[in-house]
Amino acid sequence: MNSGQGIEQAQEKFDAIKTQLEDLKIELEGQLSTISGRYDVMKDNMIETEVRPTTTNTTIHLVGLAWVPKD
């Protein structure tokens, strides 16, 4: 095999992978729009209700603190 054939095969492989990537991107967009559509329908059926907490009969069992250190 000479270097010209190797380059040609590499280019063909690259083109095939690039086509496969584009197909996967199209499939992903379709799946994302399907999932988004499901949640948009659920959003329309939701009713927002405000519930205010009361101070009676409230017991704190645990207090925690979490942080992410800056790099």
Account of the protein in words:
The protein has 71 residues and is mainly α. The protein has a domain of 30 residues.
> Helix count?
1
> What oligomeric state is this?
single chain
C-alpha termini separation: 51 Å
User: Which structural class best describes the helix and strand composition?
Assistant: mainly alpha
Q: What portion of the residues fall into strands of 2 or more residues?
A: under 5%
Helix content: 55-70%
| Overall strand count | 0
Output the radius of gyration. Answer: 27 Å
Biggest sheet record: none
Mean pLDDT: 86
Shape: elongated
- Element-by-element helix/strand order: H
Low-confidence stretches: none
What's the SSE blueprint?
Blueprint lengths: L2 H43 L26
Features:
71 residues; elongated; mainly alpha
Give the structure's gist in a few sentences.
By secondary structure, this protein is an all-alpha fold. The protein has one helix at 3-45. The model has no long low-confidence stretch (mean pLDDT 86).
